[in-house]
Amino acid sequence: MGTNGKDEGVWHTAAALTQQMSAIVEEWALEKKLGTIVHDNASNIKNIGRSLGGDDMPCDGHTLQLCINNGLKAHANIGRIISCGRRLAGHFKRSVVATKALTLK
């Protein structure tokens, strides 16, 4: 895949991705083994499974992560709590003295 500015958007079109996936399926002799393509819900990926003769299915883990992220963004207090927790964990990760003092309490 090219990454220069001129070709960058072309590689992510549904047609280009379908062509690339078709070549891989053929190269690996998967034509009769293709069942379902699991994807990240991107609109350019959704129809590739059907166009290759299989089914498509959104990744449950990715979908769940999107829901969690949206929920966290919706509540500013949760974001602040997570930020404080990260700073606190980072402090103890970087400081042997602080970690030892914490374990002695």
UniProtKB/TrEMBL annotation:
It is found in: Nucleus. Keywords: Metal-binding, Nucleus, Zinc, Zinc-finger. GO terms for molecular function: zinc ion binding. Signal peptide: none annotated. It comes from the Eukaryota. GO terms for cellular component: nucleus. Its main location: nucleus. The keyword Lipid metabolism does not apply. This is Uncharacterized protein. It comes from Holothuria leucospilota (Black long sea cucumber).
